[in-house]
Amino acid sequence: MPELPEVETIKRELEKVVLGKKITEVCVHHPLVIREPSVAKFKKGLTGVTIKNILRKAKVLILELSNAKALVIHLKMTGQLVYPGKGRAARVSFHFSDGKALDFNDRRLFADLRLLDDWRSLKFIKGLGPEPFDLTAERFCEMLSKKKTKIKPLLMDQTFISGVGNLYAAEALFRARILPARPAAGLSNKEKEILFKEIKDTLSEAIKYKGSSIDQYVQLSGKQGSYVKYHKVYGREGRPCLVCKTSIQRIALGGRGTYFCPKCQK
Question: Of the candidates 77, 143, 203, 224, which lies 20 to 30 Å from 6 by C-alpha distance?
Answer without folding.
Answer: 143
